[in-house]
Write a structure and sequence with these properties.
By secondary structure, this protein is an alpha/beta fold. 36% of the residues lie in helices and 23% in strands.
């Protein structure tokens, strides 16, 4: 059984992420530690799945600290020094739910997830009756909010006088971000801040399209800028005062540059993913640091690798993929609430437009090419030679797909989707149409050759 994807276990609650599965995963995970923090998001199905998870953990011998309904970063914060399980499907539709597992504030890596899958397959079942553990309920949300505010107060400037709009999307951001920003001193305009598992205000995934009403609201209000969250508040989208979405890689570059300049170590490192823009590399290099990349969904692995391979002067100052940020000095988890707090302080010190002006924003595009799942390995093997042949002047990296980098700062990445029958093409260039067209042609040719050979 293959349970875990790039962000935990996720799927339809009737056919995949059922109470039966939650019980079995709980019994499998519960053997990893003595105590587990357990939280859940605002989805209609989350309380029942949390009950099943608690039964699984306790019957495996693990004591459960029940946090109730919290954002995923609040659960991660509470998992420091112990393990944690979050019931959430993040930005998926309300018909879905999911399971994320943490240890000491960090998501489980591939090895740990494989260990859990083996136990589920082996149907490990409960421990002997005398080893079953108990549970307690703890209200930890206030502690988390206070910790985020205290961390952000050490950065940037006092945001008193700024007006910040926050679209919580009927998700868990509504119980955290407006409160934290208010504590910092900002005037907050919160929309869709009531938690509702049907997500009546908009889809849970914040995109330029789903945030259309919010963007108009920001443009028509006195807000200096705005933030949009997904269902569990680990993602963040930034909107300027005109209601325009700031590109996610520009936001990443802003944060990466700030943390690099503030670093005390002589070798500051930013960890990101292969699909992230070259504008990040440019701003980190200008600040005196360097960038390392890791495949999507594995920022925690990239952080560990950078720390292990670096010397005493290496410091991982920030890690991020588009929309998802790890503030490493605060904790090892993705945290959209912390991002909102940090960005508010940074924008108070230097306005959004001024921070954006230093960043080269070349055109960026993503294209999906149809490709059957079983053809992906052969297609990628073929592209490892076909793409360098098509672009002989490019530098080539093949650790996480095929990434071609050019002397003018342009680049393109081709990688198989981990969840859908596509091969993804990412590109950034002043001549974006030509680069995307030529790259896409090479991918389509490879798919056609492989599928024809299999026919």
């Amino acid at each position: 059984m293959e349970l875990f994807g790039t962000a935990g276990i996720r799927g339809d609650v009737v056919s995949k992420v059922t109470p039966e599965l939650a019980l079995r995963v709980g019994q499998a995970v519960g053997r990893d530690g003595e105590a587990f923090a357990l939280g859940y998001d605002g989805r209609v199905t989350s309380p029942a799945l949390a009950d099943a998870m608690a039964a699984g953990l306790q019957s495996a011998g693990a004591r459960v600290v029940r946090l109730g309904r919290v954002p995923t970063p609040a659960l991660a914060y509470a998992s420091r020094g112990r393990h944690g399980v979050m019931i959430t499907a993040s930005h998926n539709p309300p018909t879905d739910n999911g399971i994320k597992v943490f240890t000491d504030g960090t998501e489980y890596g591939d090895d740990a997830e494989e260990r859990i899958e083996r136990r589920v397959d082996d149907e490990v079942g409960p421990a002997v009756w005398s080893d079953w553990a108990d549970a307690e309920s703890v209200d930890s949300l206030a502690d988390y909010r206070a910790a985020v505010a205290a961390y952000a107060e050490s950065l940037g400037a006092d945001p008193s006088g700024l007006t910040v709009a926050v679209d919580c999307g009927n998700g868990m951001g509504g119980v955290a971000t407006p409160q934290v920003l208010g504590t910092l001193g900002a005037d907050v305009l919160a929309t869709e801040a009531n938690v509702d598992g049907f997500f009546p205000g908009r889809e849970s995934k914040p995109t330029p399209e789903t945030l259309a009403d919010f963007r108009r609201f920001v443009a028509d209000s006195d807000a200096d800028f705005g933030f949009g969250h997904d269902g569990d508040a680990d993602r963040i989208v930034v909107v300027d005062r005109d209601g325009e979405v700031i590109h996610e890689d520009t936001v990443l570059a802003m944060l990466a540059e700030h943390y690099t300049r503030a670093a005390t170590a002589s070798d500051p490192v930013v960890v990101t993913t292969p699909n992230a823009s070259g504008r990040i590399d440019e701003r980190v290099a200008a600040a005196g640091g360097r960038v390392e990349r890791i495949h999507l969904g594995s920022l925690h692995v990239g952080i560990a690798n950078a720390r292990e391979s670096g010397g005493d002067e290496t410091e991982v100052v920030f890690a991020a993929e588009p929309w998802k940020h790890i503030h490493t000095a605060f904790g090892g988890w993705i945290d959209g609430v912390a991002s909102a707090a940090v960005l508010t302080r940074l924008f108070a010190a230097e306005g959004v437009a001024d921070r954006r002006a230093a960043i080269s924003e070349r055109p960026y595009e993503k294209v999906s090419v149809d490709c059957p799942d079983d053809a992906k390995p052969a297609v990628m093997t073929r592209l490892e030679s076909a793409l360098p042949a098509a672009f002989p002047d490019a530098d080539v990296a093949t650790e996480y797909g095929v990434r071609l980098s050019f002397s003018d700062g342009s680049w393109t990445l081709v990688r198989p989707s981990g969840t859908e029958p596509y091969v993804r093409v990412y590109a950034e260039s002043d001549d974006i149409d030509a680069l995307v067209a030529e790259t896409t042609d090479a991918v389509e040719d490879a798919v056609e050759a492989v599928t024809a050979a299999d026919a």
